[in-house]
Amino acid sequence: xxxxxxxxxxxxxxxxxxxxxxxxxxxxxxxxxxxxxxxxxxxxxxxxxxxxxxxxxxxxxxxxxxxxxxxxxxxxxxxxxxxxxxxxx
Length: 89
Description:
By secondary structure, the protein is mainly α.
């Protein structure tokens, strides 16, 4: 797990939508090195934004090969509180 990189939803969206971007290029390298990781919430967000059944099926197959970081419910609570604390006043 030490060498894995957690890839956020926004990066996946750019990867899928803007094939020639710098972000897409970097993610391609991470994927080639088998270092990409996601959480279930990232999968949820990507599924929510799918344009139809074809994209849902593609995401299911594509992300099945990506490492999943298992998270405890406490992690989501802590993340929400950190986000609240860090927001500008």
